């Protein structure tokens, strides 16, 4: 049968949605990222935490999740992507 969902599974899905929407912009500019972040209402990601301890646990998980995405990018892929935006 189906197991119980991971405690913070929704956060992973939100981050994946943010990344997918930003990639669609085909930009490396903060302005584009900021617009996607606002459009998806990502600032609400911290809402609903009942205690400071719960908020800290959530933030720790969020940082670990974001770090895992940063570490998973191959340097060749990142360099190739950034070359598209090199003004020279």
TrEMBL record:
Gene Ontology biological process terms from the UniProt entry: snRNA transcription by RNA polymerase II; snRNA transcription by RNA polymerase III
One Gene Ontology cellular component annotation held by this UniProt entry: snRNA-activating protein complex
InterPro entries in alphabetical order: SNAPC1
Pfam families: SNAPC1
An example Gene Ontology molecular-function term: sequence-specific DNA binding
Signal peptide: none
Family matches, as PANTHER family: SMALL NUCLEAR RNA ACTIVATING COMPLEX, POLYPEPTIDE 1, SNRNA-ACTIVATING PROTEIN COMPLEX SUBUNIT 1
Protein name (database record): Uncharacterized protein
Origin species: Pristionchus mayeri
Species lineage: Eukaryota, Metazoa, Ecdysozoa, Nematoda, Chromadorea
């Amino acid at each position: 049968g189906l197991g119980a969902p991971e405690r913070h599974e929704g956060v992973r899905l939100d981050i994946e949605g943010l990344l997918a929407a930003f990639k669609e912009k085909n930009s490396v500019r903060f302005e584009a990222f900021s617009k996607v972040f606002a459009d998806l209402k990502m600032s609400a990601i911290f809402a609903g935490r009942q205690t400071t301890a719960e908020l800290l646990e959530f933030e720790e998980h969020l940082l670990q999740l974001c770090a895992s995405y940063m570490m998973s990018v191959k340097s060749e892929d990142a360099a190739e992507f950034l070359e598209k935006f090199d003004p020279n």
